[in-house]
């Protein structure tokens, strides 16, 4: 399915060197040894990498999404806007699967992909909001 939208091609191209660092001048933006650890919780099995090609602007796109139901991945619509070739979902273990856009809503910025035989479990979502924080007064 070709998703026709200019949003996927509208973002300006910037080489990685042009991206700004949050570090102060003279400081490294890399995390110090031991300060950053990869996430290893149960959600890691439900988060996926999404890649594809938007032919209209000859651009490869990439983003992340999450499995919310069997064979279904939700992500931002602008990630897949204009993608008409090589739409793939990759798991943390490196396995890749072909994907197809089945829902695309640019106003809500939500897309849903169908990924046949995707073995990842759906991310468990809370149905009730639990309050967190401190009440003073």
TrEMBL record:
UniProt feature coiled coil, ranges: none
Domain of life: Bacteria
Residue numbers spanned by region Disordered: 1-40
Biased composition (Low complexity): 1-36
Cited InterPro entries: Peptidase_S1_PA (IPR009003), Peptidase_S1_PA_chymotrypsin (IPR043504)
Name the UniProt record assigns to this protein: Trypsin-like peptidase domain-containing protein
Organism: Microtetraspora glauca
């Amino acid at each position: 399915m070709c998703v026709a939208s200019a949003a996927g091609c509208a973002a300006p191209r910037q080489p990685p060197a042009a991206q700004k660092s949050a570090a102060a001048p003279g400081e490294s933006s890399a995390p110090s040894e031991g300060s950053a650890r990869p996430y290893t919780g149960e959600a890691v099995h439900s988060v996926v990498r999404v890649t594809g090609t938007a032919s209209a602007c000859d651009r490869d796109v990439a983003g992340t999404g999450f499995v919310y139901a069997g064979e279904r991945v939700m992500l931002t619509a602008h990630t897949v806007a204009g993608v008409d070739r090589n739409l793939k979902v990759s798991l943390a273990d490196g396995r890749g699967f072909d994907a197809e856009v089945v829902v695309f809503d640019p106003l809500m910025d939500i897309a849903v992909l169908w990924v046949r035989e995707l073995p990842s479990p759906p991310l468990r979502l809370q149905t009730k909001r639990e309050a967190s924080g401190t009440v003073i007064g």
